[in-house]
């Protein structure tokens, strides 16, 4: 499961923006919203006749597989780096 | 003489391509050979874990670089997630693809086939060399 998301944004003649998002604490803070999203997902699964359990297991696997993702974009003197660990 | 070189010469003999095109293809073949070897040399031994996409560009004189690393596990999970897409949505997607000139039937695509494709991604290396851009897709 991903533990930490790191975002680094560098723009010319601006301060380097760098922040770390600890996934679990952020998920806890947004848990009411997550519950609401889960409810919407359940309704969508029922409407489209998809197994709710299968959808959640697959979605969870997808989320867990995000660890190790890294996107690094440099354009001239601007750069964006996103890493998921 | 390699098989690819013979194919090019056959196409030239059959008049499918011009001598100039044949020359360009053979030159591209010669250029491609050492770079493919380099890519496979860079690949560490063992099962690949990540799909890497590297793009180097020089647009308007400014160098640009995109480096994306996606875990192959994420692709496998994505394939399983895609298997949950309802058939109605696939039909709509087919219609849109058809409208855009891509006659592709997504309903014929089975999750097992996609998983097999992901399994064999490790053997794949795509390199595109252009004067202002270089793209490399490989697994490591």
What does this structure look like?
- The complex is a heterodimer of chains A (85) and B (140).
- By secondary structure, chain A is an alpha+beta fold.
- Chain A has one domain (4-84).
- Chain A contains three helices and four strands, in the order ββαααββ.
- Chain A has helices at 23-29, 31-47, 52-64; strands spanning 4-10, 17-22, 70-75, 78-84.
- Chain A has a four-stranded antiparallel β-sheet with strand order 2-1-4-3.
- The longest helix of chain A has 17 residues, at 31-47.
- Chain B is an alpha+beta fold and 140 residues long.
- Chain B folds into two domains: 1-42; 43-139, no CATH class.
- Chain B has a four-stranded antiparallel β-sheet.
- The longest helix of chain B has 24 residues, at 19-42.
- Chain B is extended.
- The relative contact order of chain B is 0.16.
- The interface between A and B is medium-sized, with 22 and 24 residues.
- Chain A: The chain crosses the membrane at residues 21-50.
- Chain A: Keywords: Membrane, Transmembrane, Transmembrane helix.
- Chain B: Residues 3-32 form the YvlB/LiaX N-terminal domain.
- Chain B: It comes from Actinoplanes cyaneus.
- Chain B: This is YvlB/LiaX N-terminal domain-containing protein.
